[in-house]
Amino acid sequence: MYCLGLISGTSVDSIDAALVKITGKELDLNIELLSGINHDYPDKLRATILEVAGGKPLSMEAYAQLDEAIALCFVEAVDKIKQNHPNIELIGSHGQTVYHRPPNQENIGYTLQLGRGEIIANLTGITTVNNFRVADIAAGGQGAPLVSKIDAYLLSDPEKYRCVQNIGGIGNVTYLPAKKEDNWQKKVMGWDTGPGNMLIDLAVQKFSNGEKNYDKNGEWAAQGNPYLELIEKWLKHDFFQQPPPKSTGRELFGADYLEQCWQDAQKYNLPETDFLATITDLTAASIAHNYQQFIKHPIDEILLCGGGSLNLYLKKRIQAHFPGSTAVRTTDEVGMNSDFKEAIAFAILAYWRYVSKLPGNLPQVTGAKQERLLGDIHYPL
């Protein structure tokens, strides 16, 4: 079956679209990536999304307009793929997260992804599955991360203990024990590790007066040196101490948090390059901190994916926090495209929902009370 996965992450850098050919049954799948593109939002729409995700209030009319505008951009991404691949049979659209509140003692969890699935289905003529996270939250889960079940069945190794580390705006990990272990599936773990690219991107935008959105290859940060005393201070944040299951987003590690970090740095008179190196190393150090706190078995490989896997300085800093026998690689090196892995995941989740009728969540990862079918199905007119 030809399935198209769509997602725009918390960085709001683009809509990722990945067309895959899925063969096999239930959990025993073969995945072939046929096409992948990045479709940019118009600048004005991207700015609005970032404002809303940062807490700007909206009227209901403005909310509806934003929801529809995002859906139409997702449709544009589908149309681009369809030009060369008109045989798409199913779409799995994550949409655009603008708000995420994990459950806690005071609140039931809540998550909101915009980009209406019914619009995508009707305008493309293709059955569309969206709204993947709410069923897990309704079952008491975090609604994230949702890729861990896919990681388990596509990237586990008979002998090696792996961590699949996605670095988007927020970082998340799937811990994969070696398949030689008894009941290895039950030992799979996953959670959000904290900031990924988000703080780095915000710092670059701040220092470049908006002329740059990200640090290409980490070249700017590589000119500085991380200030370890600041990183140790920041790692005392409550989120880093909280055991899994846990998830986070722009609400916790967004512009306000970066400003707090910048104020913390003022007493040390750090130049911009050193601050960028330090905020980059916070992502690397927080990944290492999470693994050391919550994973008991030595890790043979860390497989990076997402936009952060292209940041060579960040990759170097992650390796520096694992100086022993742990190899830091990318998922490309084991046969899974690192740029489009998240989009591929939502194509598979849609397939599991629509074709296989299989639950898409792992309760030990999200904290849900039970497995659930994920996603709402929208049929075209």
UniProtKB/TrEMBL annotation:
Molecular function via GO: ATP binding; kinase activity; phosphotransferase activity, alcohol group as acceptor
Record carries keyword Ribonucleoprotein: no
Binding site for ATP: G9, T10, S11, V12, D13, S14, I15, D16
GO process annotations (BP): 1,6-anhydro-N-acetyl-beta-muramic acid catabolic process; amino sugar metabolic process; peptidoglycan turnover
Domain of life: Bacteria
Catalysed reactions, semicolon-separated: 1,6-anhydro-N-acetyl-beta-muramate + ATP + H2O = N-acetyl-D-muramate 6-phosphate + ADP + H(+)
EC number(s) on file: 2.7.1.170
TM annotation in the entry: none
Family, similarity comment: Belongs to the anhydro-N-acetylmuramic acid kinase family.
Entry function: Catalyzes the specific phosphorylation of 1,6-anhydro-N-acetylmuramic acid (anhMurNAc) with the simultaneous cleavage of the 1,6-anhydro ring, generating MurNAc-6-P. Is required for the utilization of anhMurNAc either imported from the medium or derived from its own cell wall murein, and thus plays a role in cell wall recycling.
PANTHER family: ANHYDRO-N-ACETYLMURAMIC ACID KINASE
Name of the molecule in the record: Anhydro-N-acetylmuramic acid kinase
Lineage: Bacteria, Bacillati, Cyanobacteriota, Cyanophyceae, Oscillatoriophycideae
Name of the encoding gene: anmK
